[in-house]
Write a structure and sequence with these properties.
This protein is α+β, with helices and mostly antiparallel strands. The chain folds into 2 domains: about 90 residues, Phosphorylase Kinase, domain 1, CATH 3.30.200.20; about 200 residues, Aminoglycoside 3'-phosphotransferase, Chain: A, domain 2 (Alpha-Beta Complex). About 45% of the residues lie in helices and about 15% in strands. The protein contains 10 helices and 9 strands. The protein starts with a helix and ends in a 10-residue tail after the last helix. The relative contact order is 0.12.
Length: about 300
């Protein structure tokens, strides 16, 4: 979709039809894959109908998720826009703002309080028993880029090395990925519903309390640590606090948490770098960012640097 004005007009029409009244001023919210428009009481997400289908996954899940976990879904469907159809989801706006990647400007006490509430909400998700049709949706194949097995991680690293004809990824970093793969579990389990993208941009918080977890487009069956990774990795200077909260709430040792999170980050980075090498003309910026993160993971021993 290229006509942002038309998308704005479509969002307003969708909001009016859903609410039964004018939503007032609607502003654009940042999104890498959708057009998102927000008013004082509604949020509308729009994507071309022939775009990725992950919004359908979110729409299927939203009405059945544990109470109070996410924003209420008010309506969804297709809307005709010019010569094309767009898929949309319309949500009630929940109070609060996103703490943001790295939790910028948040003090240690608040970070701990938010982490404790986030862990409670994720535990509710992990213990949720989805109805049959929702369970089938969660089990649908999804190329999520996350950890599935030791063999798959080895294969990802080998594929990355084979693609890297120009030495973009230094040998020491490839060796570091291989070493992490050697320590990885044989298999990841698919035993509980996980959000699988619950970094701090996808939470809302108000007055030191979490109000909602948003964007369930990557939700699937997995292991709880698939969510603990996102919560800890993107908490900036509060990572150790968040790891401590998770460890206490789940009675998991910090060493185990660090090792499981390290494996997941290695898998995501290897997958993203492979994609970047396959599409060098469009992914140069992503490649540079992932190389910096890989250096931090391998050389800086990101998950272990506070244990040395």
């Amino acid at each position: 979709m290229t006509d942002l004005r038309q998308a704005n007009d479509a969002a307003r029409a969708i909001a009016v039809a859903t609410l039964g009244h004018d939503p007032g001023v609607m502003t654009t919210a940042e999104s890498s894959s959708h057009h998102v428009y927000v008013s004082s009481d509604v949020v509308v997400k729009i994507i071309d109908a022939d775009g990725h289908s992950r919004l359908n996954r979110e729409i299927t899940l939203a009405p059945h998720l544990p109470a109070g976990l996410t924003a209420p879904l008010l309506g969804s469907g297709l809307h005709h826009l010019g010569t094309r159809d767009v898929r949309y989801a319309c949500y009630a706006r929940v109070p609060g703002t996103a703490p943001g990647m790295g939790m910028p400007g948040i003090d240690g006490v608040t970070a701990r309080l938010l982490a404790e509430e986030a862990v409670q909400r994720l535990n509710a998700l992990h213990s949720w028993m989805p109805p049959g049709h929702v369970e089938r949706t969660l089990k649908e194949s999804l190329d999520h880029g996350g950890f599935t097995s030791r063999a798959a991680l080895f294969a990802e690293v080998e594929s990355l090395a084979a693609l890297d004809q120009h030495g973009t990824v230094p040998r020491r970093l490839l060796d570091g990925l291989t070493a992490i793969a050697e320590r990885a579990p044989l298999h990841a389990r698919a035993v509980v519903p996980v959000h699988a993208d619950c970094h701090w941009d996808n939470w809302l918080a108000c007055d030191q309390s979490v109000t909602a977890l948003l964007d369930f487009e990557w939700a699937r069956f997995g292991e709880p640590v698939d969510d603990w990774f996102f919560l800890a990795r993107f908490s900036g200077p509060h990572m150790e606090t968040v790891l401590d909260v998770i460890a206490r709430a789940t009675t998991t040792s910090l060493e185990t948490l660090r090792a499981e999170c390290e494996v997941r980050e290695a898998t995501y980075l290897a997958s993203d770098l492979r994609t970047a090498l396959e599409h060098p003309d469009t992914s140069a910026q992503m490649a540079a960012a992932r190389l910096r993160e890989l250096e931090e993971l391998i050389v800086g021993r990101y998950w272990w640097r506070h244990t040395q």
